[in-house]
Write a structure and sequence with these properties.
The longest helix has 18 residues, at about 15-35. The protein has helices spanning about 15-35, 55-65, 75-85, 130-135, 160-175, 190-195, 215-230, 230-235, 245-255, and strands at about 45-50, 70-75, 95-100, 115-120, 140-150, 155-160, 195-210, 265-275. The protein is an alpha/beta fold. It has one domain: Vaccinia Virus protein VP39 (Rossmann fold), CATH 3.40.50. α5 (about 160-175) crosses α9 (about 245-255). It starts with 16 loop residues before the first helix and ends with a strand.
């Protein structure tokens, strides 16, 4: 979901102003669930890999006033947007540094940080194991790391929407063919253990919206439509879907959004680990 931070592989959502705005709204929508069990109260120097437009950076600085956050991203456009967003927020002043960098070759000395944060980032990277290995190098012993990632196989929407399902599979295929991994959330435990981390824990977090939360359900389906359509041009250009499927998906999502008995479900995985 977030900005690509390494390599020359295309970011499936693009870098438009609309996408940058979506990332800010995404951070706000998912904040409560993302940060329910995150604790950086004992940390002071945090590295955020794939900081994108600074949406998560703002949340980190607001929730943990002891932190100074160094955000890295491969995209100059995203970093410029992050600078604008953070500079306009009073509590972020003098508490962040932004730097263009490749996540597999970080420009920092060993043991430079005592915490790290990655969110919706490894899914876009062709070498997540290399990223986690390089990250460990710049972290001090005992540093805490939180990694949150997608598990796209979990997505479910009712009523049945055949165009949406065709599009969703094409979306995942394209991300996989582009060097990413839309199912990486389930693999975080193995990746962190192999990367030399200890005390690895994972938690499955889910969004299950039905008639109990109709307003939130409608908002989430509208957001999901925006997220999916952000990749439409790429998918059509790559021959993964045709224009008729895109339009069919759009009609189905609008119908589901207005259905009084719609169900939305999506799960993702958050891992916590320490550095030896």
């Amino acid at each position: 979901m977030n900005s690509i931070a390494t390599g020359d592989f295309p970011y499936i959502h693009g870098f438009s102003a609309e996408e940058q705005s979506r990332l800010v709204r995404q951070a706000r929508m998912f904040e409560t669930q993302l940060f329910s069990h995150i604790d950086y109260s004992e940390s002071s120097r945090l590295l955020e890999v794939g900081c994108g437009v600074g949406a998560q950076t703002e949340v980190l600085l607001r929730r943990f006033p002891n932190l100074h956050v160094t955000g890295v991203d491969r995209s100059a456009a995203q970093l410029a947007s992050a600078e604008r967003n953070l500079a306009a927020t009073a509590w972020c002043e003098a508490r962040y540094t932004l730097q263009q960098a490749d996540a597999t070759d970080l420009p920092f000395a060993d043991r430079s940080f005592d915490a790290a944060y990655l969110c919706w980032v490894l899914e876009h990277m062709p070498s997540p194991a290399r990223v986690l290995s390089e990250l460990r190098r710049v972290l001090s012993p005992g540093a805490v790391v939180y990694v949150t990632e997608v598990l796209n196989a979990s997505f479910f929407l009712d009523p049945y929407s055949p165009n949406l399902l065709r599009y969703w599979m094409a979306f995942n295929d394209h991300q996989y063919d582009s060097g990413g991994d839309p199912f990486i959330g389930a693999k975080l435990g193995n990746l962190l253990l192999a990367g030399g981390y200890r005390d690895v824990r994972t938690e499955v977090k889910s969004l299950h919206l039905d008639n109990r939360q109709p307003g939130k359900r409608k908002q989430m389906i509208a957001f999901w439509e925006e997220l999916l359509l952000s990749a439409a041009d790429q998918l059509v250009a790559a021959g993964k879907v045709d224009a008729a499927t895109v339009e069919g998906m759009r009609r189905e999502l609008q119908a589901v959004r207005n259905d009084p008995n719609a169900v939305f479900f999506f799960a993702f995985v958050q891992a916590r680990a320490l550095v030896y």
